[in-house]
Write a structure and sequence with these properties.
single chain; 217 residues; alpha/beta; Purple Acid Phosphatase, chain A, domain 2; four-stranded parallel β-sheet; four-stranded mixed β-sheet; 10 strands
């Protein structure tokens, strides 16, 4: 790499629908999904990516088994914590971006954590928020400081998507996310013009836009 170019280039590993825990009791295929996540995280570490972006359905079941959560947490801790520096900064209001947690800031900026590879994830339709508290399995990973859960819309009437504004060198990336919503409901909101994407206030044309979504077309 030309080092100057390296300073301004985002290297992002994108993965989705890992479905951890699928067939975990099967004698032959039981470990398949865990092997998959391990390979993904190994790949991220070997290639020194800036961050990992997950597109939903990290878990196959809405309430993953204890074994499943344990394996997931263990792997994230093994690969995503460490001393390698994170070379980008977040310019947006993180209280808006990470609105499902009592720690509304990106994990690598937490002075009590040592994160080498940040993971950003939306939820899918298998691991979507349920119950009165509206919690999903990702919120456990978020509370433990291993994953940055974004794209959770709290309203069923209208959606306002506020991007995570990320800068590396001179490169600016607006990362939009929308966790899975029942297709009919989202369709209705689009038809009624109740879905809006917020834009950066300054230099709107200077940003790359990336939208992470988990729906049927």
């Amino acid at each position: 790499h030309d080092t100057a170019d390296h300073r301004d280039t985002f290297k992002i590993l994108i993965a989705t629908d890992i479905h951890l825990g699928y067939l975990e009791k099967d004698a032959i295929r039981g470990n398949d999904t865990y092997t998959t996540l391990d390979e993904i995280l190994q790949c991220a570490k070997q290639n020194e990516v800036d961050f990992i972006l997950l597109g939903g359905d990290l878990f196959h079941d809405n309430k993953p088994s204890r074994q499943c959560l344990h394996k997931c947490l263990t792997m994230l801790r093994k690969y995503c914590m460490g001393d390698s520096p994170v070379r980008f900064e977040i310019l947006s209001d993180q209280k808006v971006n990470f609105n499902t947690t009592q720690f509304p800031w990106v994990n690598y900026q937490d002075e009590n954590l040592n994160i080498s590879i940040p993971v950003f994830s939306i939820h899918g339709n298998h691991d979507d928020p349920t119950g009165a508290e509206g919690l999903c399995a990702l919120d456990l990973l978020s509370a433990s400081g291993l994953v940055n859960h974004f794209g959770h819309s709290h309203s069923v009437e209208k959606i306002e998507i506020s991007p995570i504004l990320i800068q590396k060198g001179i490169t600016k990336l607006a990362l939009y996310g929308l966790g899975s919503i029942p297709d009919e409901r989202l369709y209705r909101m689009f038809v009624n013009k109740q879905v809006s994407m917020l834009r950066p206030k300054e230099d709107q044309d200077g940003w790359f836009n990336l939208f992470t979504i988990h729906q049927n077309r």
